[in-house]
Queue: 4 jobs
Job 1
Amino acid sequence: MVRLSLFSRQLLLCVAASVALMGSAPSRAEDANAWQSVKKAGVLRCGAAVAPPYVMRDAKTGQYSGFFSELCRDFGQNVLKVKVEFVDTTWDNIVAGLQSDKWDLSMALNDTPEREKAISFSTAATDYNVSLVYNKNNPKLPKDTHSLGDIDKSGVVVAVMSGTAQDKAISAVLKNAQIMRLPGNDETRLALMSRRADLLADANITNMLLTEAHPDWATALHPNPPLAQQEVAFGVRKDTSAADLAVLNGYLEKQVKSGAVNRLIKTSVQQMLVQQKN
């Protein structure tokens, strides 16, 4: 038997460990393959927090619609060639769920500096700002309401979905009005319609649905300059490769340039208006 010196044995152990690590680690070429893990699983999981017309969910069937839902479905089925699964979540959890790998994409996220610390973003699918809908017959509000100063008063209640970009936006500018934070779109809308809240702060496109559905009483305050002007995009995990992100961005840029996104927005708005009438 050949006896190895202590140095030789240590050297052999180091070489063996290095070989084992090289064999277990994926190559950079494999890492660069777009959406490889999604394709391997055969399903694209889309994190879904309801915010019409971006993301809508039929209460009876559980089916998702809305223009971000359609974009996620089309990207999964026609680009990645996999099934698409929508995972229910809330706006409070939509970033944390993405970080913990509960889904692959978070839909309809505002690209904010705070969120960019935790996740990455695709290119924008559309723009966003905050408007506030109110009942024009509400005696607590002036007839010529045209600024945030007109509503930022003690006794005025503003409903908003907790954890959203609009929650952060109005929290920064309203110092006297009471902010009523609620879990979802249905709850905030009901608070306004039942007059438990005097105003509803939400995305400008979402609030357009309410004013068009109820022109007899609903009107909107659009702050000037626009409040929380941002881009709305898909959220992805921080470790998403540049190649993966390029595939998603290329898809979105094509949809925006072709006018497909605008058509999806119009379809989603009309669909929501029909649902509200029924």
Job 2
Amino acid sequence: MDAETPEPTAQDTTPRDTAVEAAAPSRRAVIGWAGAGLALGAAAAGSVAAATMHEAGPAAPGIDSTVDIPFYGDHQAGIATPVQDRLHFAAFDVTTTDRAALVKMLKEWTKAAAAMTGGREVGTGATGGIPEAPPDDTGEALDLPASRLTLTIGFGPTLFEKDGVDRFGLRARRPEALVDLPKFPGDRLEPGRTGGDICVQACADDPQVAVHAIRNLARIGMGVVNVRWSQLGFGKTSSTTPEAQTPRNLMGFKDGTHNIAGTDDAALAAHVWAAAGEGPEWMTGGSYLVSRRIRMTIETWDRTALQEQEDVFGRSKGEGAPVGKQKERDTPDLSAMKKDAHVRLAHPDSNDGLMILRRGFSFTDGTDGLGRLDAGLFFLAYQRDTRKAFVPLQARLAANDALNEYIVHVGSGHFACPPGIRKPGEWWGQALFG
């Protein structure tokens, strides 16, 4: 949980499809201002309740939350982009065996994604179509700005082969790095929260905008895909902007301080972006995503002494400073920490320089039926090659981390996220299916 995350990469500023813009004007133009969202409710503890709240989360210093994040670029937005405050992540199962139908859906998804990330309605919008037909847009984001929405797509191992069947002629195009993740010690993965043929990560500073994006894609995909599982997240737990304060997780600790900065092109090239010649050409410039739903045993943790909590992490709870240091970003003395301290085990210096780009969010999904909160961390790790990053890091943590007494991994996914869409007319998965 402590392997650290990046900051914004410069996205290509290719102009949006002017024809689409003409058909569907910006929501900001409709309401006449580019504010940070309407405050229609108070903050709620549960992630489902949080999804009904429209107040934009705080942006990192130097980030204008009213400026759209470009959809077009060499890399997909939502990876090295500054982390937004809200998440709606969905994994889909492809229910058709018709390759043409799947390709058609991906083309429609791409157009919809470009519109929504630009603050526009999908197609003819929520009210502009034929009265006798369902509208093209579900409408719950009307009057809301784009809130820095990003949409990031990934393809899971089962898209390439499922139960021994090559449904779409993609088996030979599966990257070697897109491995079936091993079962780590302590894993209690639930099938209903694990896997998926395709994933879409929607991040925004307004939860309704993120939910609207996934809902529209699910509507467009009806008959081609079904939602296998989804996760709402709030309160980002990692920062891709080094000048910003590292957010706290639900245990009250800062975690992931040494994330890769999204502006650090050298580190991104070394640790995040798939390199030419290392896998199939369609993945060059993309990244491999591992998602993990990590349940925290909140009630046990809350009855644990402060000193033990700090020993478990290897940080002070107040400042977030490493053991024996004063400030959060002071260089840690790993030898001063207990051998099973989380920071010590996860730090790059303990892992031959290994790093991942981390985007994490807290979640609270009601109770487990036994009077305990179903709460924790939805962990998202991007890397150049999962076999050389998440797999060895998690193996080390699963075997030795003191934090394991208070957490359990209950959901998991692994996805190949292709490079970005560079201009209008291109579509998600084009190089893979082409």
Job 3
Amino acid sequence: MSTQVPTSPADSTGRLSWFRRNRPILYVALAFVIAVVLAYIATPKGGESYAPYDPESPDPEGTRALVQVLEEHGVDVEIVRSSKRLESTEIGQDTTVFVTGTDALGEDTASRLRDRTDDAADLILAEPAPYVSAMLGIPYAVAQTPEKVEAGCADQRWEGLSIQADAVTAYDAGSCFPHEGGAVLAPAEGLTVWGAPQVLTNDQILRADNAAVALRLLGENDRLVWYVPSLDDLAPDEAHSPSSLLPRWINPALWLLLLAVVAFAIARGRRLGPLAVEPLPVHVRAGETTRSLGRLYRRSGDRTHAATTLRQAARTRLAQRLRLGREAAPEAVVRAVVQRTGRPDLEVSALLNDAPIQNDQDLITLANALAALEEEVRHP
């Protein structure tokens, strides 16, 4: 014989009240779990994923079409995807070595690449990453433009040709396809830098004279070794790209988490009711504070302190705009501003650091010059 224990009405009422109080939280948690499950299910599990400018990729950012055209014109194209494979690849004076995906190069793999291509007819790097440029002594980029760029050089290969892409990078000391103080095709120490890899892609190779330029750039010699560096070749002490270590579903999951947090905040805010506004004892406008400080500085005649404050505030804002961090050194800010605006180094350094202030007119001129410099950095 079994005996049923009656449920207390108080227990049932307590559970119902708990569910009522926490119903928004439960709804948000349930929606988040469902969304994460759907995102995981929707994430493609099979198929190949290619990086931009991959020579075997049929995607708009791939370059399979160019490889096929080069082979039809008699160029022997060999695709190499590891440093070890590159060591065993035949590279002679009839070989052009073209490198895409340079952000996967480290100091060791970059050094081995230079040693291995000493006998090559040409070594071409497609828009190398900034740290790769520093390692190999390549001039830094100076401008980008989606406009058409004419060859504009004495090299007969490019006579009468022009290129056009969504983003074209020019480098200091470049030789052909000049733009804003630099050029897209730039010679460096024993290699060539090509700042317009989008010209080679399946999506943009038919713009302007992109196809002709691509064939003359990579099809000049009988053999082409297309090297795609691998992150697996990096030495143990060389950091991997953070994005390469994350699963593909992490981005949609983070967006869903953000939406869940916003929904939770809205639900909790509605539960607490409208905000109560209480008058503060004293309310001082920011403009009045600024004018009062200005009067104090003027009354004391401390123009040097006022100029120092203006420069420090300008350096802080410029460092944040250029993503250098609030603690960036003044010299680093000056270098970044010079690179962004193209102004002379001495002019920017004097403006941000040590231009003398003799009178009120100099102080006003300094404030206007700093404001103009910030505007130029904001909209170069």
Job 4
Amino acid sequence: MSNPPLTPIATIHSPYKEKFAVPRQPGLVPSASALLEIHAPYDDINAFSGLDEFSHLWLMFIFHKNKQSIKWQPMVRPPRLGGNKRVGVFATRSPNRPNPIGLSLVEFHGIEQKQGKLFLRLSNIDLVDGTPIIDIKPYIPYADLKPEARAGFAQHIPETSMQVVFTQQTEHATANNNQLKVLITEVLKQDPRPAYKKLTLDNKRYAMNLLNFNITWYVEGNLTTVESIDLLKA
């Protein structure tokens, strides 16, 4: 008997409207909050009884932004290694895998019901808006936390010396929205540029859609300057 196909049970509503600038791992942008909308018939509140006793959740998801034309490769170039060294795909968390399935650890802040829909409030996420979720599991410290574990090239949290500053114009744009300013700062401190760009003189302007804003910036050495913050047209 064959197993039934995987069915998304929920969808993430996150500030990241495109793949570019999404943190490469969860936990790197603490202020990145999201709502997880549970689909019917899985939105039965009884299915979440007891979940409020947990602070963190594992989300299994589908890399839905992967291009179907891109085939998996046995060797990939992790950004953590500068984009130059190749390692086996199964020694990484590369999205280009035989099956486009990912795993993310997120903070859980409670259940919310509104307009007849059920949502989970989350933060510290690394998922692009619209990501389909195929399972939710509670994080269990005694089983999931292994301080003695070896993690190869990803043993420690990525170090960043990047500083983020705002022009007078963008300071004004965030004057009454400190939450937006903090989010932009945390995202850009991770330096989302392609890894090879960090080793050369970079004169390029970059842009990302974050929440309902288009953000542009440029980088000089270890200094990122936020150049513009424009409201996206509906």
